[in-house]
Request: fold
Amino acid sequence: MKLRSSFVAAALLVLAPALALAQTAQTGTLSGVARDGSGGILPGVEVTVVSQERGTVRTTVTDAKGRYVFPGLSLGLYKVTAAMSGMETLNVSDNLVEAERTTSVPLALRIAGVTETVQVTGETPIVDITNTSVTTRVSKDEYDKIPIGRNYQTMLARAPGVVGTGNVNSSGALTSSNLFLMDGIDTTDPTTGTFGTNLNFEAIQEVSVSTSSVSAEYGRGVGAVVNVITRSGTNRFEGSAKYIIVNDDWNAQNNTKSETTGDSLARVKFDKVNPVYSFTLGGPILKDRAWFFGAYEQSKNTSPQRQTVGVIPEDFQQTTTSNFWNVRLTAQVANNHSVWVKYFESPTDGFVIDYWGAAAERTALTAQDQSADNWAAQWTGILSSNWTMEAMFGSYGSLITVGTFEDGRHSNGAPHFSFADSKYYNGATFDGFVERPRKQFNLASTWFTSIGGHSHSLKAGLDFQDVESGAEFKYPNQQLFLDASFDQRTGLFVPQNRRDYEAGPSVSTGRTYAFYVRDKFELGERLFVEAGLRLEKQTGTSDVDATTVDTTALSPRLSAGYDLAGDGKTLIVASYGRFYSGIIQGFSDAFANIPQQANYKNYAWDGQAFVFQNEVRVGASSFKPNTNLDPSYVDDLTLGFQRQFGRNMGAGVRFVARNWGNLIDDTRRFNADGTIQRDVVNYGPAERQYRGIQFTFDRRFSGGWSTQASYTWSKTEGNHFAGTFSALGDYLDAQCRTTVDTTIGAAGVISCAEVQDGPTVNGRPAYDRPHNLKLSAAYQRRLGPVSLTLGALSDAISKATYTKNRTLNVLRPGTLTNAGPTAVYLYEPLGSDRIDGIAWFLDTSLEVTWQFVSRAQAGLRAELFNITNEQEKIAVNNSVWCNTTATAACATAVERYGTATARGSFQAPRSVRFSAIVRF
Reply:
């Protein structure tokens, strides 16, 4: 069957979905229409595409309407050749094919004359009528030239609508609502919903961040969908070696002071060179058929000496070692069939952490190692001119192990808590592990056909994911001693109680099944529509196989693009979609029947020995959540305008409106006997919304320079900004009290309903930032064998909000007795105050390289972060308030409100990084 539309084929093959969570593309599409000099269509033109990097070749013939399409192309540059008897042969080179994009290459053939072949330079797809998602891309050609942190997490900050780095807030969503995918494998932490792994920075080919209007091939994510695509080998052997160093002694000093005491926040600089050694190598295994790429990086980072907080402070130091490596093999097994397989590991060992927060000696510190690994394999096949398939299988796992930093002197290393000074001795906080594996399988097929005279690209996919959340945290020797006192010098202690804990792993499980269909079709010559539907079912069980999650969701998506000028470069786009948020495994873990460090037998010291007193059990509870919950969702509406200028530059504006619904929370109330009744529900009064206008400008690297810029105006409002459980709906039948500020309510007593669900809980969260300007740019100039590359990156953003508040005690019904729980009273609507000014920074870089043999280069690179040394206040440490200054406590609270007292509450001072580089 002939293909009916280049636009339909444009979206043809997207790499196998990354499980039920999302789908990421490793392929793109190249299509166009062949015409003669008068603009008439040319059927029967032979069109050939050749990968300029791998030499693979595919050929087709234009259909009756002059259209051709090449779906399922590996990413990279392609040369398109068009040949027809009686016409000049046309060559169009340097056509960039990107993930989930259609590169349109129109072919204008002339009647054969003196010239037999015409050479033309292709274009980069800045705007794409077949893909209306709000997506920001940063490729290796661009991030290699700008000063940026050496991890994919820092690249997320370049997307409009994104606040922060790493675990970001995207278009009003929470930090636990993003999806992190690597080569089609979901690496999101299943328990927390945050990013779950690091990756060798040199292995990255491209990072794309979609923040709104994604198609039905993606599911369960309501924040940013982050696609990290790793590098593949080509027909040319190429590689690099880098030696990268940092030293705190080279950085600027903190010049800030505590806003309450006036004390300097200057740090003690640490004069230590921390190195990174990085190597890459890629090339052909069999030219034009099979390729490899590998990367290895080792980094050592020694931090300044710190001290424990005991009577005799003890020095300790942390040296972490990271050995990140990955390898990827790619093969073209037949003209229309390709496969790849990849594996990576990212271990970092050597963390030393005071999890107690009050470790009095080195033996009370915790040692921690962490690692992650991922392997995946994918097959892509073009089965006929109108049928394609793709399949993927992969696994991902993360492991954290914790134990003692230094062996204690007593009780086989069990920790001791001293009531005399409220500090811990002799033993670490944890001895155990956290392990969170996942497995996934994906299958999808695309079929091209004509229905009612309109060309359609119909795609259906099936996704499956299996995840676990496992943990075992026990005290060393499974004991905790509570002492009247502990003498750090002698190790002698006065015993009071001993707790003997139960130990054992707690493992919750979850599964997600999803099926989606989507149709991309054109209505007339200028209107393109995509309609999709996604069905997802998620189940979860606790560590004793009790059902905790059982949801089914149907998610519709609709988007359209209208080509104003008829050239595919001036577009009006619009979209609507409902996106469901997956329930993270941390939800099931909250109802574990094998709690960690919770169940114990209590023994009291009688002067001679420990005598059994009682047993404490918080596990094996009959409580479990309502399994009839509906997953939370966001309704996402966008309207925008896009324009491409020339072959590699574009600009646009987009309005984004998002409303959340079915937010999950737990509600608590008192029973008649004074016990607490807890219910997990879709809490109706919970709400959140986002409105934003995003302006973007993008010039891909060409002619020696590139620029990416955006400005976002936005507003996030609501009353529910917790990952799962918030204070909304809690103790609405009770009274709350404070004895500090008696202006609240009646002599300090007020209805908890007014505290927990009153009007002041509505407002703007700390991550609401109305104004955000982002800019990155690079310029490269060759002077003979020498190349100079200048890079710059800058952000200017509104500062965080904060609110006058005070903690109140929840009272037992009908009494003035504290029931135990607390509530936070807001004097004014949430986020009423905002730190003054705009937080901004400018990072710069300069790289000088010398080409000494063929394409081999050697050079040096210097990067300066926060070159202007801005150290603005960006957070507050004191937000407690009183309506009166009649008491000393209230007077102090009012005086200190809105002040910053910690070094981390100000922007980090200027820092530098140097690199020696060899490339070939």
